[in-house]
Amino acid sequence: MSYDLCLEGGVCVFPWGVTEADIAVRDGRIAAIGRGLGPAAERFDARGLHVLPGLIDPHVHLRDPGDASVESIPTGTRAALLGGFATVFDMPNTNPSVVDPATLAWKQGYVDTHSYCDFGIYIGATKTNIGALGAMEQASGVCAIKVFAGSSTGDLLVEDDASIEAVMRGGRRRIAFHSEDEYRLRDRRGLFSSGMPYACHAEWRDPECAFLGTRRIIGLAHKTGRPAHIVHVSTEEEFGWLADHRDIATLEVLVNHLTQIAPECYETLGGYAVMNPPLRDRRHYDAAWRAVREGLVDTIGSDHAPHPRAAKERPWPETAAGLTGVQTAVPIMLDHVNAGRLSLARMVELMADGPARVYGALRKGRIAVGYDADFSIVDLGRRKRITNDWIVTPAGWTPFDGMEVTGWPEAVVLRGQVVMRGGEVGSEPSGKRVTFRS
What we know:
alpha/beta, Urease, subunit C, domain 1, TIM Barrel, 9-stranded mixed sheet, 8-stranded parallel sheet, 13 helices, 25% strand, globular
């Protein structure tokens, strides 16, 4: 029996445990797991490295269509590979937004020829496309409908209960929600003025703003029977509430809310700490880690949302909200593993199996025979410093500039092809649309 590729001697993270093994690949799928598996056209010496299933970032904003001087699908997916991801799911708030069949068709075709990693596409809900969402969510490569119940611009804002309920009744797959309450945001906006400290961002978008939005959405999820995925959960109150609604709700936590703490982050980074929902104080940071340890969290995302430096350096609240993260998320989470905050197996559950399970990505998220031969290969002991000059996103900055981490992505294998190794990405895009369960 011969194979196309054999990964040899790595410590592999399987669903059933962590052990040293060889993995053989044929026709882009995992064909065998064991030792001494036979001849292969290509061999990858993984001794001294950990072989993870291909990691998935389920929350990125690659800004395409949009401004390529800030980010694009080619640059963002190269960043994903360099950061150790094999797959990303891209949000719809682009310019124009992905809210209609024509724009979706453009994006599907563009992904097929320009993405360096595998790719899922969110479609955006609006108050005018509700009738089309049920069909659009079944289109090739679509991972989910995204609803912005707060904090969006243009027509990508669905803030009232009647419209949110109508979206929930138009289809059957799990919907991803940005759940800050738009009405509370509007009511509190007048309390603040231009030039106030950046830390006021967390006061304006306070914990009650997030908690109120999440309570409303979960109530509508129960009313309609439509499962909801609450992205970037950031408050102790939300975690406590969602623990009682696991029959209908799944949830995501961001790397930032597990790493950065207010008010120090605003004092150090200024506008480069501004994101939605905001970075919060230690009470919420501790609650996020408790939720990870207790199994409440389903997925971890980066919410990679680049802006040009000039937009980040404006006075608050004119500061653009959003941080880069797709290239830094894996190294930072590996550093958390090395610090003992979570196990490597739990990290894999949150960054591979969890996204595949929540969104229904077929043949993704685990190392098992028959699954896509996607692997994120990491050196748990390698120490490196994250720097702005390593970032390939054209915006050119990271809020983690200067941070030293232990643990680094060494290679990414995508459907049996080594597409990143030693900090070098292959010259040609080879990403494909992910297939999702209907």
